[in-house]
Prior knowledge:
This protein is α/β, with parallel strands linked by helices. It is built from 13 helices and 27 strands. A hairpin with a 4-residue loop joins strand 18 (about 410-415) and strand 19 (about 420-425). Helix 2 packs across helix 11 (about 305-315) and helix 7 (about 215-225) packs across helix 8. The structure holds adenosine-5'-triphosphate (ATP) and magnesium ion. Adenosine-5'-triphosphate (ATP) binds near residues 34, 35, 38, 262 and 272.
Amino acid sequence: MSSDDNTPAPHFIRNIIENDLASGKHKAIVTRFPPEPNGYLHVGHAKSICLNFGLALDYRGKCNLRFDDTNPEKESEEYAQSIQDDVRWLGFQWDGAVRWASDYFDALYDYAIELIKQGKAYVDELSAEEMREFRGTLTEAGKNSPYRDRSAEENLDLFGRMRAGEFPDGAKVLRAKIDMASPNINMRDPAIYRIRRAHHIRTGDKWCIYPMYDYTHCISDALEHITHSLCTLEFEDHRPLYDWVLDNITIDCHPQQIEFSRLELQYTITSKRKLLQLVTEKRVSGWDDPRMPTIQGMRRRGYTPEGIREFTRRIGISKSDNLVDMSVLEGCIREDLEARAPRVMAVVKPLKVVITNFIEGETASREAGFHPNHPEFGSRVVPFSKEIWIEADDFSETPPPGWQRLVPGGEVRLRYSYVIKCDEVVKGADGQVAELRCSIDPDTLGKNPAGRKVKGVIHWLSAEHALPAEIRLYDRLFTVAEPDADKTRDFHEFLNPASLTVVHAWVESCVNQAAPETRYQFERLGYFCTDRRDHEPGGKLVFNRTVTLKDSWTKEQG
Ligand code: ATP
Ligand code: MG
């Protein structure tokens, strides 16, 4: 059982919903997740997905998936597909068909006509620069455009001709007529339609005018009878516009926009634009590079949907800024994998050990379960043989105080096997340790040695039985906790050059047929997952390190 069956944490959005249900304002809730298909989703979107779909599940409501496809140049079918895959992988299903803001282009156009007829929208032809100038500043009111008082007839005619393609891109815009002196700049006659001859992934070349996000979003929400429209805090100042549009058209629904704070995660960035840069500049292998904070990257690295869902539950929902420590995410993943990943052995930095008193047919192998708390995971035989691999780091000629692993003349237990003693250290021409010669105490298979204590336990593999594997060890993508914080410096400066180390390692033969995306704990090393793209069952074995084990060494040293 996964750990995310915990009861949901209360938060202010839940309180609002519960009040609305109790008062009868709504009989059931409808939420939506509204991504723009202009990139792959990241961990911040996971927060929004878990919030929107999670609330719908908890209150037996519905959640729509709606693509906000109003910027044709940046959007693609590939992105839209990956977003659907990600939502499903996280464990959610949207209500009915996937929806698109472009499904409402005709309706949006009609509502614009309605605004024009009421004298609440006008066609403007100030240049972009003049428009900026007229807008004013935070401290200074804006000025009315000389085109602001055109008659409804003239505006209808011009807007119809905008749609018909009579004017070049950018030559005119349709603006809502609100208040150029409003202290909220979003209310200073915002543009609601622009001319843009761009091929759209859904509507092709049908339109050469496209509605702006703020105008589109509220109407799309209302057309879908969304009850609670949840978005991130940067939209707080847009809420008056959201409400203004819905208050000034004939529509039977007025969703409540509620803002919550974005998730920011340490040692990473959550800007689609910057993530795209990492991909196009080949700083990473793609959107699904396991170092990327994208949902596809986390998936490929071995993170579980359950672990990510638990993470979003733990960080909670509020209106205060939250820069979350990476250890919170890693902790959730680790806890989830603790219970679900079978445990096997692997050696990433091999040192050969020759067992000098190995006797063919007499020296025994032992059976070992795949999980101490889950006998139903089954077991396998861990074969022993004359030559074994141990981790080079588990041997030291000059050990630090408290060391309990192997030293010259010392003893250590091989996990699931005998106690060995290091009788001889063989060095290569370079003076480095090349091999150890050890003897087993035959009376220690499955029992304590007589008359002495051997505390250290190390992992190992029979050299003859082990299989070669490529193991990719990942570290943080950035060297600083907030690579994006210093506006005078570029985030590229903080890329961690050592974020990926590829090692040629050995693994137990029982993992040979593992399908892509199979997770294991490699004892004492961490959690690993077979790579979705490059791993071939029975062929080239490729593992990604998902997360290390917490404090794997302190226990042995203490
Ligand atoms: P863009 O700059 O392209 O608009 P975006 O990150 O806002 O990027 P959207 O596709 O518009 O991307 O986001 C879809 C939904 O996910 C929105 O409701 C948005 O508020 C939410 N979201 C995006 N980033 C985060 C984040 N870091 N934390 C929480 N929610 C987020
Ligand atoms: Mg957005």
